[in-house]
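Quick log. Single chain, no ligands specified.
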Amino acid sequence: MIEKSQSLTGGAGFFKTLFDHSPYAMRIFSSDGLVVKNNDAWEVFWDASRSGSVDRYNIFKDKQAQRVGLTSSFKQALAGISNSLRDVEYDPVLTGLTGRKRFLHVRMLPLEQVDGEIDGIVCILEDNTEQRLFEQERCRSQERLEEEVNVRTKHLEALLQFSTELSALGELKTIYEFVTLWTKSLLKFDYSTLFVLSEETEQLVMEETIGFPRSMVGSFSLFQDQGLPTLVARDRKVAVVEDFQTESRFTIPDIVDLPYLISLLSTS
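-> predicted structure:
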C-alpha cells in the first residue's frame, strides 16, 4: 500500500519522483476508474499520447479489462488489497486505444491518504510478451516433434509388418498387388501404381495399379523424361509434384489430363 498525504498527482517528494522517473509503465486511477495520470514509461509502453489516454479511458467501462480480470483486480485494490495478475493478454486496439497486443504482469496498488482513506490506485505493468511467445512456440515445437515421432513410429511399424508379409508371398504378381495396395493404404493416396523398369526397352512398364483402368497394366509404359517415375528411376531418389499446372521437369503423359489429379509422389 502506498501512503500519500497530498493529491494524487500534486506535490513533490519521493512518490512523485518515483512515479515520474520509474522505468516501469505506471498509471494512476481515481477511485471511480478514471485515469488521473500516466508516467513517461507508460506513454512509451503503449505508444500513446498522454492527453488522449487520460481524457477518455475508464477501467470500469473497458469490457476487455473486465474479461481478463483487470477490473476485479482494481476493485481489490480499492478495498485496500495490493494484488497482481500474470500473463494477462490485452489488446488496446479492441478498446479503441493505441498499441499492440501484449501479455502483461499487472500490479494494482492502493493509494492511501494519511487518514486511511483510499483515493486512488496505481497500476504498474511489466511486459511478458516475449517470454510468453517463446513458451508458446516451445509448446508448439514439442507438439510437432511428438506428432512427427508418432508418424515415423507408425511408418516403421507398418514397414516391419510389410517386410514380414512380403517375405511370405511367392508369385511376383502377388507381390506387385501387395506393394501397390500397401503403399496406397499407408500414404493415404487416391491412386497407387507400380512400374517396373524393362532392361530391354529401358521403359517403365505399369505392372499394377489402383485407381487407373486395369487395361493399362502391362500395356502402358513411360519413356525417358516422361512422367515423374522416370526422374526417380534416373536419379534414384524420391520426387514430388505439388502442382501439375506448373511442372516443367518432364513431359506429362495423356493419362494425367484428369482435372482431379493434382499432385504426385514417386519413389524407387
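The chain has a mean pLDDT of 80.
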